Amino acid sequence: MSDALMVIATICIAIFSGISCLVAYRIHQSTQKRDEEMQDILEKLIAATLASGPGVGDEKLMARCFKVQLKELRELKKEGPF
Question: What's this model's pTM, rounded to 2 decimal places?
Answer without folding.
Answer: 0.62
